[in-house]
Structures are given as structure tokens and as C-alpha cells.
């Protein structure tokens, strides 16, 4: 009975020859190195964030009782929209004081004009004119101060009349966006230091990443960032671009904050979501092979090359050093000379490794 031919180790170590049947069954494909720009990555974790000016905490200028709450968490609001109504007697008192100051200012203005007329005719005393000027300026400052306080409350002092005093004031959204939190309910008394409602504008989402001290020198403005949001259910890898590299360290974690603008702003991301990212730093041109063409054996890596003519079934194993991997390809540095024209095994390397090992064991 005729024996099936098997691969036999060649005379040199690390070489083997396949039979035509084995070569066909293994599906081996050969080709040369392909030169590619391979980037190295810096791993970073962080969160989706917004600039400080896009996250607003709304508080009451003066304490009061919550009369109405107009929004719910998650609701979209426009700039200037009423989010709550407060009520307190002090609001009435402030309006009363302003109207009294406005009336007194009008009287003092007329009195000053009379004293200026008398002074021009050299009839009145200089002291009365100076006193009128002083009282007018003092009351003018009081009226301006009270008008400013009313504007902070959202009331228009120029429209205020004695018959239109109100014990209620409205709190409005200073930016448009989504309501992040509502910390009040009707009947509650709130103080000026209390945060009543938080509004977030998602129009300028970005990433705030933490990069370790040892890697920060490789990170620069304009570099590409690929990231995923593990807990969002989104499996796709999203893109961003570094626009700011921090200049100070977090002393405890020994990290630097890096900010990146999102490329796809239509993806539903929320401020505060955790992200896992890798920043693609400056790359270099490398010889590359597919990852399946490289045999990993502990700390060593190997590739196979065809020996002889294009129809030869004899192969030799070469030790190499691997570099960064990208899109299924890995950078290769041979530890002995290999011309660019060398026919390398791009597919089927693990079959050759198994046959080589089997032949050595036998």
C-alpha cells in the first residue's frame, strides 16, 4: 500500500517542504511586504462632557417659595423659557422701594433745577444748590441700585407702576438645552445658594480624556481619537479630534486632561457617559503583513517565506520583531535581511508552523 507523502524537514533548521496535495489543502497564499503608515496608540479613559458655559445651574437671586415648576428632567427648553415661578412678600417690598425712590428722584430733579435757576439769577444760596445736587445724586444711585435688583429678578423697572406690583417672579433658562436636574417642588422655600434647575446644551459635546504622564509627550493637537461608549449599547467606534492638551498634572492619578471634539454630532451621547479611547499618535512607514501571517511563540514572532521559484513548495521560517497593529495588519521588522521581492506567506502560516513542529517532533 502506497503511503501518503508528508512534509519533511529540510536540511536547514526552520525549513520544510510540502507535497503538492498538502500545499493545495492548506490554501497558502504568498505575496510581498506592503508598506503602510502605521500609527501607535495611546490608551485613555474619560467621559463625554460639555464646556462650562454649556452647563448652567439656575438659582434664585432672592429667597422665596416655589409657586410653580414648569419643567421636567430631560425636557428640552429654549433660552428665555420660564422654568419656575417664585413668590415672596420681599418682592413686593423691593418694587415699592423702587417706586418710592423713582418718585423722590423726580422731586429732587425739579428741586435741583429750581436751585440752578436761582443760582443763575444770583438769588439762591450756594449751600442750597450744593445740598440739592448731593441729595439728587444720592437718590439717583439708590434708584439705579433698586432698578438693577429688579432686573436680576426678571422684572422690568421701566414698566413698573403702583397698580402693577406683583409678589411673584419667574426664573428663566439662560441657555437653550435639556433639563438635567430639577431640585425643587411647589411649596418649597429656596435660598439664593440653592441650585434649583440644571440645564445642559448638547450642541458642543466633547471628550474629556485622562492620559497618563508617561504618554502625554506623544499627544498633540489635531490627532485622531477613536472611542467607544461601553455602557451605551453602541458597538460602533466613533471618532474625535484632539483640540486641547492640558498643561497641569493630576497629582494623585498622575494624569493630564486632554479634550477632543466629536466628528459625528448626530450620535446620541449624553454628558457624563464613560468612554474608552485610544489616541492615534504620529505614525511611520513600515513593512506590514496580515496578522494571520505572523506566528506568535511566546516573546518571539515568526513569518514564513517561499524558497526557490514561484512553483516551489519549500518554505523557511524567519524570526521577526512586530510593531503596531492597525486594521488587521501588523508592522514587521525582520531580524535578518529580507528583500522586498521575497515571496512571503500571507495566508496559511499556522499550517506551516504545525507541519514544521510535527516534522521536528517526529
Describe this structure in words.
This protein is 22% helix and 37% strand. It contains 4 helices and 24 strands. With 362 residues, it is α+β, with helices and mostly antiparallel strands. α2 runs antiparallel to α3 (126-152). Strands 1, 2, 4, 19, 20, 21, 22 and 23 form an 8-stranded antiparallel β-sheet that branches. The chain has a 6-stranded antiparallel barrel with strand order 5-14-17-16-15-18. The two termini are 21 Å apart. The chain is elongated, with a radius of gyration of 39 Å.
Task: Please describe the topology of this protein.
Elements lengths: L7 E2 L5 E3 L2 H7 L2 E3 L2 E5 L2 E9 L5 E4 L5 E6 L6 E2 L4 E6 L1 H32 L5 H27 L15 E5 L4 E6 L6 E2 L6 E4 L5 E7 L11 E5 L9 E8 L9 E8 L11 E7 L3 E7 L4 E3 L2 E8 L6 E13 L2 E6 L9 E4 L1 H13 L1
Antiparallel strand pairs: 1-2, 2-22, 3-24, 4-19, 5-14, 5-18, 6-13, 7-9, 7-12, 8-11, 9-10, 11-13, 14-17, 15-16, 15-18, 16-17, 19-23, 20-21, 21-22, 22-23
Helix pairs in contact: 2-3
Amino acid at each position: 500500500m502506497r503511503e501518503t507523502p508528508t512534509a519533511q524537514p529540510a536540511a536547514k533548521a526552520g525549513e520544510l517542504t510540502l507535497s503538492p496535495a498538502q500545499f493545495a489543502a492548506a490554501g497558502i497564499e504568498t505575496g510581498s511586504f506592503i508598506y503602510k503608515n502605521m500609527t501607535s496608540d495611546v490608551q485613555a479613559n474619560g467621559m463625554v462632557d460639555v464646556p462650562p458655559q454649556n452647563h448652567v445651574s439656575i438659582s434664585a437671586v432672592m429667597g422665596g417659595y416655589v409657586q410653580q415648576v414648569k419643567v421636567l428632567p430631560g425636557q428640552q427648553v429654549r433660552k428665555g423659557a420660564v422654568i419656575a415661578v417664585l413668590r415672596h412678600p420681599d418682592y413686593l417690598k423691593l418694587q415699592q422701594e423702587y417706586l418710592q425712590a423713582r418718585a423722590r428722584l423726580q422731586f429732587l430733579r425739579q428741586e435741583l433745577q429750581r436751585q440752578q435757576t436761582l443760582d443763575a439769577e444770583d438769588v439762591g444760596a450756594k449751600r442750597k444748590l450744593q445740598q440739592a445736587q448731593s441729595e439728587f445724586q444720592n437718590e439717583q444711585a439708590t434708584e439705579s441700585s433698586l432698578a438693577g435688583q429688579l432686573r436680576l429678578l426678571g422684572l422690568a423697572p421701566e414698566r413698573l407702576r403702583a397698580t402693577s406690583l406683583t409678589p411673584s417672579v419667574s426664573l428663566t433658562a439662560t441657555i437653550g438645552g435639556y433639563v438635567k436636574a430639577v431640585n425643587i417642588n411647589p411649596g418649597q422655600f429656596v435660598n439664593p445658594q440653592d441650585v434649583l434647575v440644571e440645564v445642559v446644551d448638547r450642541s458642543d459635546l466633547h471628550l474629556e480624556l485622562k492620559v497618563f504622564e508617561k504618554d502625554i509627550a506623544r499627544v498633540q493637537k489635531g490627532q485622531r481619537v477613536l472611542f467607544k461608549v461601553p455602557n451605551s449599547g453602541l458597538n460602533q467606534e466613533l471618532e474625535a479630534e484632539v483640540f486641547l492638551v492640558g498643561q497641569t498634572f493630576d497629582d494623585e492619578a498622575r494624569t493630564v486632561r486632554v479634550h477632543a471634539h466629536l466628528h459625528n454630532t448626530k450620535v446620541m451621547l449624553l454628558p457624563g457617559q464613560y468612554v474608552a479611547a485610544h489616541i492615534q499618535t504620529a505614525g511611520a512607514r513600515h513593512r506590514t503583513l496580515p496578522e494571520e501571517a505572523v506566528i506568535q511563540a511566546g516573546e518571539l514572532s515568526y513569518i514564513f517565506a517561499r524558497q526557490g521559484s514561484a512553483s516551489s513548495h519549500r518554505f523557511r521560517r524567519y524570526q521577526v520583531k512586530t510593531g503596531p497593529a492597525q486594521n488587521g495588519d501588523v508592522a514587521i521588522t525582520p531580524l535578518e535581511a529580507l528583500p522586498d521581492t521575497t515571496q512571503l506567506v500571507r495566508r496559511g502560516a499556522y499550517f506551516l508552523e504545525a507541519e514544521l513542529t510535527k516534522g521536528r517532533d517526529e
